[in-house]
């Protein structure tokens, strides 16, 4: 916001954005907000780069165009990423500059610079988004036709041709090479010298026409190449040398290299894979136990889908996409824990059946399996086991091929990757604001505060979490101002994370800003950012997942935002602001900045005072003020507009035709009725009612039994030796019954019921 302090200068000749993008200079600005404020340095467009596409796989090799700068065709271009990784750029026949993205061992936004003097100086700069290899669109990769055949080649009757297809326009070449690369992690596990490496192995096909299709009959790889069992294919123009790094490339997906394994594998895949499985089992025994530090799973599917700050859909098993759950038969939906575990960077996965019950590996191979390497990687990336996608392949996926897919030793795999149940799972608490601001606090208190300004919704001393809201005047359908407000922008940060702001622009478009710059979700809907993950659905529901496990969800409707904040249990007694003190006690919800409290219930006028007390200041504001309107109304104006007096008690006139329709629409929802009367709009009322219902449903899904405040799980029960059991649900009230095989008789309990205490009734049965 420093970019707004001065008026437009007259003399701007001496300041330049060369080497200075993102800075506020003496006479002009090189910050992203300078364009809408009209205070950019004259050469801002030249040195601060806009690129297309803005993202690509972390494997690199993607050609991107620099849109705003025309360069001399004879320039020697060098592109430098993160101030150290250099790739060669070029100028095309239209004078447009291009860079090639590099192979990176991390995801997220990477700064890059461009040199036109053969690497002496790098005055131009921009950012590149490096993306998890599984999250880039299929069109950017070459396709292994019938991928299962590639990954099972040589096992039970899998033979014949393999076919690779790609978009031939993706590479500007008449002839191409196809290379095989392998991935390994070397050094001592969990030590400083543990290193990740993608390595060129050999060229599978050379100088073949770039037609977009290649078929071949695979033969076992020569020499020790066949010891590499996880890897990838790379297609490059034939003009480059074998294995040359950071050149224009099209990569396949990472896959199990069954098709190139040696004769020993082809002669007896089961024996080869069994030996590998046993060796993996031995190695696992010597590695630290990561299971003790991963978060427990939510007990029910409803909880798993509601706890959006800590769990996110696993793309490999998604109920929204038809539940195609290849690795988890019997499951309809799986989620993954968003954050990796603190010490070992391990991942958690939780799968559920059609009844919404968690599936455990102890009962079914379709059960959820935790991961030594989190599939999405974890900051600071760069080193095992934190490499996005690939560490997970080495520790958790290729081993699944050894034990479960290429041989019949799945029990060995599941012994090392048992499902976590939900005995220590505690749901988060939720608070929401919607409509002409109606608030529901973490402890469930409802109130309405219609101030106009910028306010602290919640802040916490635990992680320096801050979520701030801006309210603006609502309008009647005819365009005149109504005497109520609505939430028009929210901004948030935790510790020293990136700052995210979601707002309605002046032309009522929903915008997401990352550190003051508008984010474009056209290429990527998921972004790994500093201290948080950001996700946008196709219909613009925004979720921010902070590293503490706190989550923020924002939706737009009728020109106003609906916001929900989800906080894990550790935030109890660590919150303040308009959402109150989260501690299960509504008596202290109206706590002021100076820690004095106002009693519940309070009058609308008292609530107006309480809200005004939580107005923020320019010094601590997270908002971006990049238009004259925002500057005048919120930066230079008061943070709480004391002269704006809202309607406290809207009048219900029985003769008003709108009242009849309102009663039909709102029924007994007081927030809906209030908003119809104050905005004269049934749409606004309908949107408010829906937001209110959604909040109640969310709380119900998170806390199915309010009297217990958590879902009780009694934990897994085994069947007796020489007997069997009926039932795989281990939650409160469930019954598991036991039967002995023929010729055996049962002692102990015939059936056991999960009790409120979290213990099973009766005694352990035996046959």
From TrEMBL:
Domain Sushi: 712-767
PROSITE patterns membership: AMOP (PS50856), SMB_1 (PS00524), SMB_2 (PS50958), SUSHI (PS50923), VWFD (PS51233)
InterPro entries per record: AMOP_dom, C8-3_MUC4, Epithelial_Barrier/Signaling, Ig-like_fold, Somatomedin_B-like_dom_sf, Somatomedin_B_dom, Sushi/SCR/CCP_sf, Sushi_SCR_CCP_dom
Span of domain AMOP: 269-417
Gene3D superfamilies cross-referenced by the UniProt entry: 4.10.410.20, Complement Module, domain 1, Immunoglobulins
Source organism superkingdom: Eukaryota
Disulphide bridges: 740-767
Descriptive protein name: SUSD2 protein
Organism of this sequence: Eurystomus gularis
């Amino acid at each position: 916001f420093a970019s707004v302090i001065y008026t437009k200068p007259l003399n701007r000749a001496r300041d330049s954005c060369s080497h200075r993008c993102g800075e506020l200079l003496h006479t002009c600005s090189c910050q992203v907000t300078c364009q809408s404020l009209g205070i950019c340095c004259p050469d801002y467009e030249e040195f601060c780069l806009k690129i297309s596409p803005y993202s690509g796989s972390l494997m690199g090799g993607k050609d991107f165009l620099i849109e705003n700068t025309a360069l001399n065709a004879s320039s020697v271009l060098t592109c430098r990423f993160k101030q150290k990784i250099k790739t060669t750029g070029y100028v095309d026949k239209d004078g447009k500059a291009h860079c090639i993205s590099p192979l990176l061992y991390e995801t997220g936004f990477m700064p890059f610079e461009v040199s036109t003097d053969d690497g002496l100086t790098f005055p131009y700069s921009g950012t590149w988004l490096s993306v998890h290899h599984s999250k880039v669109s299929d069109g950017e990769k070459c396709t292994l036709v019938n991928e299962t055949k590639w990954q099972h080649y040589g096992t039970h009757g899998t033979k014949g041709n393999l076919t690779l297809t790609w978009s031939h326009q993706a590479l500007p070449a008449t002839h191409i090479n196809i290379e095989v690369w392998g991935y390994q992690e070397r050094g001592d596990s969990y030590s400083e010298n543990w290193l990740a490496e993608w390595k060129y192995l050999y060229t599978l096909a050379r100088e073949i026409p770039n037609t977009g299709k290649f078929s071949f009959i695979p033969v076992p790889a020569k020499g020790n190449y066949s010891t590499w069992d996880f890897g990838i294919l790379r297609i490059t123009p034939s003009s480059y040398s074998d294995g040359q790094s950071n050149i224009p490339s099209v990569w396949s997906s990472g896959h199990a290299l069954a098709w190139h394994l040696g004769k020993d594998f082809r002669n007896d895949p089961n024996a080869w894979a069994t030996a590998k499985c046993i060796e993996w089992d031995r190695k696992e025994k010597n590695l630290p136990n990561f299971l003790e530090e991963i978060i427990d799973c939510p007990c029910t599917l409803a909880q798993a889908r509601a706890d959006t700050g800590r769990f996110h859909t696993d793309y490999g098993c998604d109920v929204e996409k038809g539940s195609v759950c290849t690795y988890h038969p019997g499951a309809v939906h799986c989620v993954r824990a968003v954050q990796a575990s603190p010490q070992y960077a391990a991942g958690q996965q939780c799968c559920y059946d059609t009844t919404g019950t968690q599936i455990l590996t102890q009962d079914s191979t379709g059960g959820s399996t935790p991961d030594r390497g989190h599939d999405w990687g974890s900051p600071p990336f760069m080193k095992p086991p934190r490499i996005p996608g690939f560490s997970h392949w080495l520790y958790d996926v290729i081993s699944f091929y050894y034990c479960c897919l290429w041989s019949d030793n799945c029990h060995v795999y599941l012994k090392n990757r048992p499902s976590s149940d939900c005995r220590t799972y505690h749901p988060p608490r939720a608070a929401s604001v919607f409509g002409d601001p109606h608030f529901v606090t973490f402890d469930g208190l409802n109130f309405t505060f219609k101030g106009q300004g910028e306010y602290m919704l919640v802040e916490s001393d635990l992680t320096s979490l801050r979520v701030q809201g801006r309210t603006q005047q609502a309008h009647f359908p005819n365009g005149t101002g109504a005497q109520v407000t609505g939430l028009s922008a929210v901004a948030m940060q935790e510790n020293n994370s990136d700052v995210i702001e979601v707002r309605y622009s002046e032309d009522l478009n929903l915008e997401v800003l990352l550190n003051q710059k508008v984010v474009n979700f056209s290429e990527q809907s998921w972004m790994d950012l500093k201290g948080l993950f950001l996700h946008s659905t196709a219909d613009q529901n925004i979720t921010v997942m902070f590293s503490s496990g706190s989550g923020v969800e924002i939706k737009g409707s009728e020109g106003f935002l609906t916001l929900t904040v989800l906080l894990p249990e550790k935030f109890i007694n660590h919150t303040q602001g308009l959402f109150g003190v989260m501690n299960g006690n509504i008596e202290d919800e109206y706590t002021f900045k100076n820690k004095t409290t106002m009693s519940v219930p309070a009058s609308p006028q008292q609530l107006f005072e309480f809200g005004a007390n939580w107005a923020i200041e320019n010094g601590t504001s997270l908002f971006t003020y990049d238009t004259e309107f925002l500057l005048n109304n919120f930066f230079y104006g008061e943070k709480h507009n004391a002269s704006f007096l809202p309607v406290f008690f809207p009048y219900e006139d029985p003769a008003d035709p709108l009242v009849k329709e309102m009663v039909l629409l709102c029924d007994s929802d007081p927030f809906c009725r209030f908003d119809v009367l104050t905005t004269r709009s049934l749409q606004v009322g309908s949107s408010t009612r829906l937001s209110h219902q959604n909040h109640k449903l969310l709380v119900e899904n998170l806390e199915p039994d309010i009297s217990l405040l958590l879902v009780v799980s009694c934990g897994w029960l085994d069947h007796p030796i020489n007997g069997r059991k009926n039932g795989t649900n281990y939650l409160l009230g469930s019954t598991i019954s036991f039967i002995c095989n023929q010729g055996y008789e049962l002692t102990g309990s015939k059936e056991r019921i999960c009790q409120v205490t979290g213990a099973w009734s009766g005694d352990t049965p035996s046959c």
